[in-house]
Amino acid sequence: MKAIDAAEVSKRYGSTTALDRVDLAVEEGETFGFLGPNGAGKSTFINILLDFAKPSDGRVGIFGNDCQTEGVAARERIGVLPEGYSTIDRLTGRQHIEYAIRSKNAHDTNPLDVLDRVGIRDAADRKASGYSKGMAQRLVLGMALVGEPDLLLLDEPSTGLDPNGAAEMRKILREENERGATIFFSSHILEQVEAVCDRVGILQNGELVAVDTIEGLRNSMGGGTKLVITLAEIDEDTLPDIRALEGVETVVSQGDSTIEVTCTNDAKMDIIVELHQNGIDVVNFRTEEASLEDMFIEYTGSGGR
Ligand code: ADP
Known about the structure:
Elements lengths: L1 E12 L2 E12 L3 E5 L6 H8 L7 E6 L2 E2 L4 H6 L1 E4 L11 H11 L7 H7 L15 H13 L5 E5 L7 H17 L2 E6 L2 H7 L2 E6 L2 E7 H7 L4 E7 L7 H5 L4 E6 L4 E6 L3 H11 L4 E8 L2 H9 L5
Parallel strand pairs: 3-8, 3-9, 6-7, 7-8
Antiparallel strand pairs: 1-2, 1-4, 4-5, 9-10, 11-13, 11-14, 12-13
Helix pairs in contact: 3-4, 3-5
The structure holds adenosine-5'-diphosphate.
């Protein structure tokens, strides 16, 4: 049984194609990162899963239930942290969790334990109107966790969290996955995804341009090596020549006499030789494994920020 099974899902808003024939299967128990620059279609896909939007074509199911025609059964198994979530000003944190407990029939859940888990137990009896953005986000995550959902759907879960909060979020996602939950989350923040995901899908302009493990994406980039080269000075005229070399994927100038080149193993020497032949002094160079961010740039041509 697939946790999420999408077949040829398209969504058009007038002349805008938000999703273009997306085929995607997420296995039960996976942590799947849905990546893409802003406007790529991530929220649209999640909205279709939640039946907030209907696909123009294609269909998608959650644990075998069609998200549109069997939406109630599909949603029973989901905990959601939606994009643009909102809290109810006049209710306290505890009352929000109590509401989630009632609506999910999870009566053996202690609201304070949930608030403790998401790090806002001290604010349990304060009204949500006085919560910071990060606290509100933690509260909504707490609501999503109530009832031990089989699938956690999180749209940009770390927006609004400080680095500490983002690390706590990752810890919770890992714990939930260990309990057996499937995790599906969208993000344009690559470190978040790289740290926790088994597989990632990269969405661009509504099209799923890659779906693989991070390791697999690295391999498909021809070894996925990153060469970090420090030059005596950067000569912008010569950098295009490096870009044209066989096996070179991307060349990014860091502005401080450093360039980062993603390339195949075989291309490394050619790059150094090319620089040398153009009279550019290489002060230092080292190799690193390509990060997800490098791959993201490779696939989408943007840093995703
Ligand atoms: P992401 O979540 O990746 O930032 P979205 O799914 O929000 O991307 O948007 C994908 C595209 O669909 C964008 O071009 C956006 O403007 C368009 N879009 C999304 N929702 C609507 C809507 N309700 N009406 C019209 N266009 C929309």
